[in-house]
Amino acid sequence: MKFLLDLLFRVLQLFTEPYFLVFLAVVIIALLRRKNKSKKWRIGILITTVLMIIFIGNGFLGKLTSAYLQKNYLHTPEMKAAAVQNPIIVVLGGGVVDIDHTEKVHTMSYSRMVTAYQLYHEYQKKNQPCTILISGKGRGHISEAELFREDFKKMGVPDSDIIKEDKSMNTYQNAKFSSEILKKMGNTSLYLVTSGFHMKRSVALFKTFGLKPIPQASDFIDTEITVFPNSYNAAFTFVMLKEVVGIWQVQLYNSLGVNK
């Protein structure tokens, strides 16, 4: 059953890819023309595709999606070291880039790194224990967790305060493997650091594995309402739409009890 659901959502996610939508429209128009269907149908599909591109590219849909994903995390609790005793700060990786055979963490990862360090520093100022758990393998030769660890060490975080979870390849595995580590430690008090658009799904998955993370969004994305469509609005809108589909998937899987 899970295999079929995974396949269904893989297909559904195709509809958040701009090239697929254009390709689909072209194929449908070509098939209608070949079968000598009404010209009105072909024109209708073409107009619908153009309007959809405008609606996505002018930032309007992006604004709605951005609010749905991020508004609950705009005003996160102030970083006070006394709020949680002996916490784990779980930082989710944002990907690895390989340029000229040199691997670096993705640009969005740096905001997560800074947010995690700021929170860690608040505890250090009060001489209170705090640990950073870095979650992510990535697709490079060096894991995201290891690249994060190297940068945290440059910031002055000792190895003794860093835990690497370097097996996970997606958010589901981030939550699953991190929860296994936390439960072995007997500590489920945690802050969860990731991007704002990614937080809703991440929190839902960590709750799936019995954890109650305190969200600390590191960055936010939004679109700008414009008269003419542009690639900036389209790119971020499609990113956020894919995240919405991911949230639906988590909710359905949880309701069916197939997410563990």
Automatic annotation (TrEMBL):
Record has Transmembrane helix as a keyword: yes
Keyword terms: Membrane, Transmembrane, Transmembrane helix
| The UniProt record lists the keyword Lyase | no
Q: Which residues cross the membrane?
A: 12-31, 43-61
One GO cellular component assignment for this chain's record is: plasma membrane
Choose any GO biological process term that the UniProt entry carries and state it.
Gram-negative-bacterium-type cell wall biogenesis
DUF218 domain location, by residue? 88-246
**Which CDD domains does the annotation name?**
YdcF-like (cd06259)
| Highest taxon above the source species | Bacteria
Tell me which InterPro entries the record gives: Cell_Envelope_Assoc, DUF218, Rossmann-like_a/b/a_fold
**Official protein name in the record:** YdcF family protein
**The species this protein was found in:** Chryseobacterium pennae
